[in-house]
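> tool_call: predict_assembly(chains=two)
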Amino acid sequence: MRALTAAAIGLAAALALVLTITAIGVPAGRTSPKPLLTTVPRHP
Amino acid sequence: MRRKASLVLLGFAVFFTALSPLLRWYAFPRLAKIPPSEYQVAVLEAKNATLLDYNQMKDVTVPEVNIVQTLRGNVAAAQQVKKETGRDVVVWDALSYIADSHGAMVSEIPERYVFDAHSQAPVHAAGENVDGDPVRRQGIEFKWPFLTRKRDYYYFDAQTRTSAPIHYRGTRTFHGLKVYYFEQTVPWTKVPLPKKMPLGVTPAVVTAAGMERWYTTKRMFWVDPTTGAPVNGEEVHQEEMRFIGHPEKPPLIAFAGDVRMRPDYVDSTVKLVKSQRQLVLALTSYLPWGFLGLGAALLTTSLVLEARSRRPGASSSADSAEPAPEPVPA
């Protein structure tokens, strides 16, 4: 019974961690203020 | 004591073992996404290309033609499309600016491309266009999906506004990366004229002069299969102005050249892809396999401890809740 409880806690923790990380997701950021280029960038 | 330790280890074993498939099959599709604010520039060049001189109305050879391709993620538009469709999308406002060897504009074609941030599947939303013409894309454009497979994909061609298969032609090594090589040939097709051309020439002027634009290209991409990002691209591209109703008249070459990615942009793209692929590999390979191994090791340790604690005369008897009763004289 105690083994089952330990396994259930492990499983629940894994689910909680993954669900939290995916719920936070990736930040959208902001549209770049840089323009769509109409000049040829120089060679570095 | 051993009993408790084995239970704690069992809990961690289940935790890490469960994380393995959860990361690979649940978290990866939700976390591996193109950032909606992505901004990228690529410069391609065609050496000794042929261009149409609109002053003389004849084709001329020029030392080089540059194609500057800018992709800018429109975050506000992506959020709007997400509200409408419920999907995480990326909206790319792109511009292909073609310049002659003096930097003067030859043509420029803007487009808006809306796609699923993970799967790269096109999402149809208001504003999707090429050069102002509404389009409905099928397949991919600019980038392949994460974990690209060795198969043909549908690739959207902005000139013809149609999609056709781009064929997987094998695996190559490019700048130390294992890449998939894809190739597509677009046969001679009548295509719309760009809305912006040199000297203020408009599509109506060209049509009034009795001409129409035809185009063919052989398109090649070297794609990193982990990120789906092309690390190199090349096009053998030809455009002609043909006289409507006069097949006997030789066409004017509007553009002909072997367009290749400029070496400095190849280097920067390879560098970017090499760093990004580590993140994708972490979610699809390193962490899932690592956690699975760790889970197995912890489970084994837990079982060993449990077995030892059950062995007769094992010191773990000290863990028993109640001490053994004192012997009582008969």
